[in-house]
Write a structure and sequence with these properties.
With about 180 residues, the protein is an alpha/beta fold. Helices cover about 35% and strands about 10% of the residues. The protein is built from seven helices and five strands. The chain has a five-stranded parallel sheet with strand order 3-2-1-4-5. β1, α2 and β2 form a beta-alpha-beta unit. α1 packs across α2 and α1 packs across α7. It is globular, with a radius of gyration of 15 Å.
Length: about 180
């Protein structure tokens, strides 16, 4: 018998990592040596963990960008470079994976307010301009607009891969089941 992990709580989400890798490959034609910035609620993100595992196997250079309160203990052991400054973390990134703020998993006060989180840690046009000019933006959804990402960036058809991620999600998951 085979078991398919379709996401197990806050631990892993392997099919999301597969579709994210496919999305990157379709646009960048490679993953090896790309600078991939994963930003937001890393502590509660099964998507972050699965992407870190897979992208490391594919030789990407992975950065994690988040406030200290949303940084998992021991993340440095996962072969990532940790940034607690968003501007430094986004510098020359090829891919920016924005993670959802998971309000349902936050029992403590991990962020002072949604407005303050967006000001310091949300992806807007100004912060995006620190990445490479052809950097692409991803988000596993659902999006909390104005909290982790600005609508202007999320809806930018020249930079955002979010809708393609949704489309490829169906195909990748069908392939896994097959």
């Amino acid at each position: 018998y085979s078991v398919i992990n379709a996401g197990d709580g806050s631990n892993e989400h392997p099919t999301q990592a597969l579709l994210d890798a496919l999305t990157i490959l379709r646009h960048k034609k490679r993953i090896s040596n790309l600078e991939v910035a994963i930003m937001g609620d890393v502590l509660h993100s099964r998507v972050a963990r699965s992407n870190i595992y897979l992208l490391n196997k594919l030789n990407a250079k992975i950065r994690v960008i988040c406030p200290p309160t949303l940084l998992p203990a021991g993340i440095e052991k996962m072969n990532v470079k940790v940034y607690k400054n968003i501007y430094q973390g986004l510098e020359n990134a090829d891919i920016i994976m924005v993670l959802r703020i998971q309000k349902e998993r936050m029992a403590g006060s991990f962020v002072p307010s949604e407005k303050e989180f967006f000001k310091f840690w949300g992806l807007d046009r100004e912060k995006l301009n620190r990445a490479k000019k052809n950097a692409l933006v991803m988000h596993p959804g659902p999006i909390n607009r104005g909290i982790e990402i600005d609508s202007d960036v999320a809806d930018d058809i020249g930079r955002s891969l979010i809708l393609e991620q949704v489309k490829l999600g169906v195909a990748v998951r069908m392939a896994v089941i097959k």
